[in-house]
Amino acid sequence: MSGPLIAVVGVCASGKSTLVRGLQARGWNARHVVQEHSYVPDMWQRITQPDLLICLDASLEIVRQRRRDPEMPAWLIEEERHRLRHAREFCGLYVQTDTLTPDQVLARALDFLSVIEDRAR
Known about the structure:
This protein is of the alpha/beta class. Helix content is about 50%, strand content about 20%.
């Protein structure tokens, strides 16, 4: 894998692992950071020291559907969003994944990375 180190964060079931696999399959140096489970606001920086940060989000209803857990408490997703506030502030790309397929999320990330690459040239 080559290029900049890309960290991907987001609430549970927002598509982080799928996006990372898609980026890696295309040769990008992408890593999933479990920032949503850390009380340390900048853990995403400490763990990976990424060049680029992508932040994914999903609504409570969509998270419940994707996890097949209709009883997942709202406070849990709100807590994850609170833990991700620093990452969201500093991300290069924020994607709300509710209405997007995994391929569409990947396409948005690849478009973003293409712009970054063009700027670097």
